[in-house]
């Protein structure tokens, strides 16, 4: 593998990630919920931080930035569309814009919905996509700013990535997401099995992220509005995928 990918639990249920390019030794951190665990991981590995990639403006993804930069000066990358409410950016990226971490090519996707201006960052050579609060393990982010149609468009961009893509999302919400998923997709054997795996992992305090896109496509109800079983459960056999997605999102809000 030409890279390392490290998952760092932060705060009570957030995740940051470290991505390191072997060729150059350059390291990016994806989101900074708090500085201390990221500092500790960098120090333990003897790595020098090169870049910070911010997915969206919520405090629980940016709050540790100033303290992190105080110890590790690095180039900050974030959405151009959100530059007015993100910390100072060294590189402001638009939808589809490529940039690089050493030898690794990265591309930003606008995945508005949870917020307007949320980005996901896909690194093809690492087969990884940093989705934060857009596509999550067995879920998707709550729609604080965007519409269901916007989030559905965003999720479809992510669904088009290679199925073996590693999905690095922003929170440990998977166990409660699984409970909800089973209410709309109760007969999905892969979901039932994944739900058991999640309970076992959480009982041992292990993270349930990252996950793979293939697994999400099989089990995440927010990616499955075309599924006949889910449609039958919701009584929405003739609705559009976007309408079924909106109904699933609404039910999750009230779950
Ligand atoms: Zn958020
Ligand atoms: Fe968040």
Describe this structure in words.
With 255 residues, this protein is an alpha/beta fold. It has helices at residues 36-45, 59-62, 65-71, 148-159, 174-184, 189-203, 213-219, 228-234, 241-253, and strands at 3-10, 14-21, 27-30, 49-53, 75-79, 91-93, 98-101, 104-110, 119-123, 128-132, 135-136, 139-140, 166-169, 211-212. The protein has a 6-stranded mixed sheet, covered by helices on one side. A 6-stranded mixed sheet has the order 7-8-9-10-13-14. Strand 2 (14-21) and strand 3 (27-30) form a beta hairpin. Helix 5 runs antiparallel to helix 6. It binds zinc ion (ZN) and fe (iii) ion. Zinc ion binds next to loops.
Q: Secondary-structure element order, as H and E?
A: EEEHEHHEEEEEEEEHEHHEHHH
Report the total helices. Answer: 9
Spans of at least 5 consecutive residues with low confidence: none
Spatial order of the strands forming the largest sheet: 1-2-3-4-5-6
User: What characterizes the major β-sheet?
Assistant: 6 strands, mixed
List ligands, each type once.
zinc ion, fe (iii) ion
| Overall shape | globular
Cα distance, first to last residue? 41 Å
Q: How would you sum up this structure in a few lines?
A:
The chain is of the alpha/beta class and 255 residues long. It has 9 helices and 14 strands.
What's the topology here?
Elements (H helix, E strand, L loop, with lengths): L2 E8 L3 E8 L5 E4 L5 H10 L3 E5 L5 H4 L2 H7 L3 E5 L11 E3 L4 E4 L2 E7 L8 E5 L4 E5 L2 E2 L2 E2 L7 H12 L6 E4 L4 H11 L4 H15 L7 E2 H7 L8 H7 L6 H13 L2
Parallel strand pairs: 3-4, 4-5, 5-6, 10-13
Antiparallel strand pairs: 1-2, 2-3, 7-8, 8-9, 9-10, 11-12, 13-14
Helix pairs in contact: 5-6
The protein binds zinc ion and fe (iii) ion.
